[in-house]
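Quarterly update from the structural biology core.
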Amino acid sequence: MRPGDETANANHDDQPVNPLWGRLALLVFGLTVLAFLTAIDRPEWFHLKPATGTAAAMSYASDDAGKS
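Predicted structure, tokenized:
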């Protein structure tokens, strides 16, 4: 070991983390919060609907059969 090695390692530990990763993490967090707040404001987006006219007719027919 050389006498200057300990101080050289101490200088490298104090370097800040790459600011790009912090900004990217903050952006992802903000977009996640925005998506969550948008989703809870629009619950109709999560109701399942029939994809075709045939599926809609079958769903309508099954609802009427249960009520009769």
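The CA atoms of residues 50 and 56 lie 5 Å apart.
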